[in-house]
TrEMBL record:
Pathway assignment: Cofactor biosynthesis; (R)-pantothenate biosynthesis; (R)-pantoate from 3-methyl-2-oxobutanoate: step 2/2
Catalytically driven reaction(s): (R)-pantoate + NADP(+) = 2-dehydropantoate + NADPH + H(+)
Function: Catalyzes the NADPH-dependent reduction of ketopantoate into pantoic acid.
PANTHER family in the record: 2-DEHYDROPANTOATE 2-REDUCTASE, PROBABLE 2-DEHYDROPANTOATE 2-REDUCTASE
Keywords: NADP, Oxidoreductase, Pantothenate biosynthesis
Keyword Oxidoreductase (UniProt): yes
Record protein name field: 2-dehydropantoate 2-reductase
Signal peptide: none
UniProt xrefs under InterPro entries: 6-PGluconate_DH-like_C_sf (IPR008927), 6PGD_dom2 (IPR013328), ApbA (IPR003710), KPA_reductase (IPR013752), KPR-Related (IPR051402), KPR_N (IPR013332), NAD(P)-bd_dom_sf (IPR036291)
Keyword Metal-binding: no
Domain Ketopantoate reductase N-terminal stretches: 3-148
NCBIfam families: apbA_panE (TIGR00745)
Top EC category: oxidoreductase
Length: 310
């Protein structure tokens, strides 16, 4: 299958690189600046004892010639609208789109543009970041990609897609209920994000002070209540993992939201927390800690956006 990876950042770049290493037909859709950097320095994966350098195939907006069989979409939420326009020429009648963005509201935007049958659900788990040199830095040995049809859809070529993505150096799985898995991941990232951003610290620092553990547990309860009300209760094992993550003594765990705030970058507040709060309000649920976290991050986001206008 011809695979297009939209973005060559910490997530898309990592999985795309592994697929290319495994001999798959992979092309990265990137902006001109990133294309130039990759042409000059290669696509690099470092950390945990690894130093991989690849010479990736790339394309740019306006240069896509014909559809791709599979499109792995991994961009920040604020780049989704532009990414949809950029990748549109690559979407044909038999193309399958695997989005691995945070939250779930991106699904509606993709389905509205390309149709329900083209859009799968996807969950990526990988601990990577992009450093100042444009390298993909591995932070932990976590690397899995799961995908599947949403609802009652049964897209053609799903089995072929699974075979093309498998055995490429990371764990893959064809999910029978990808909607539930997307909600479970959403609860996890929202809980870790709210806990670390609201208190402004790593998990270990938070649970080391009086009330820290109870606070973290209360945040998880709020997140899980929204998933249950939406008809996608988090399975007990996944919920235990989330609770363990946000209450682990001595843990240095933070969150992507926290790291964005700490470094003055734009944060995905609406996609990770704002949308969750909105759904909770629609269900008539009280989620005061999530509301407070969302308010705090909206203040941060407004500062970032106002600074751009100066």
């Amino acid at each position: 299958m011809k695979i297009l990876v939209v973005g060559a950042g910490a997530t898309g770049g990592y999985f795309g690189a592994r697929l290319a290493q495994a001999g798959r037909d992979v092309t990265f859709l990137v902006r001109a600046e990133r294309a130039e950097h990759l042409a000059r320095h290669g696509l690099r994966i470092v950390g945990l004892g690894e130093r991989t350098v690849l010479a990736p195939n790339t394309t740019q907006t306006g240069k896509i010639e014909g559809p791709y069989d599979a499109i792995l979409l991994s961009v920040k939420a604020n780049g989704l609208e532009q990414a949809i326009d950029d990748m549109a020429p690559a979407v044909g009648p038999d193309s399958l789109i695997i989005p691995v963005l945070n939250g779930i509201r991106h699904i509606d935007a993709l389905a509205a543009r390309f149709g329900d049958d083209a859009v799968l659900g996807g969950v990526a788990k990988v601990a990577t970041t992009l450093n100042a040199d444009g390298e993909i830095v591995r932070l932990a040995d976590i690397q899995s990609l799961r995908y599947g049809a949403r609802g009652d859809a049964a897209p053609a070529r799903l089995g072929e897609l699974h075979r093309s993505l498998s055995d490429a150096g990371f764990s893959t799985g064809l999910s029978e209920d990808i909607d539930a898995e997307m909600w479970a991941k959403w609860v996890f990232i929202a809980a870790v994000g709210a806990v670390t951003c609201l208190i402004r610290g790593a998990v270990g620092e938070i649970v080391a002070v009086p009330g820290g553990t109870a606070f973290a547990e209360a945040v998880v309860d709020e997140c899980a209540s929204v998933a249950a009300a939406a008809g996608h209760p988090v399975p007990a094992p996944a919920l235990r993992q989330t609770l363990a993550t946000v209450t682990e003594a001595g843990s240095s765990t933070t969150s992507s939201l926290y790291r964005d705030v700490a470094t003055g970058r734009s944060a995905e507040v609406e996609q990770i927390l704002g949308d969750l709060v909105s759904r909770a309000q629609g269900f008539g649920l009280a989620v005061p800690l999530l509301e407070l976290s969302t308010m705090q991050l909206r203040v941060h986001q407004n500062r970032i956006e106002n600074a751009r206008l100066v």
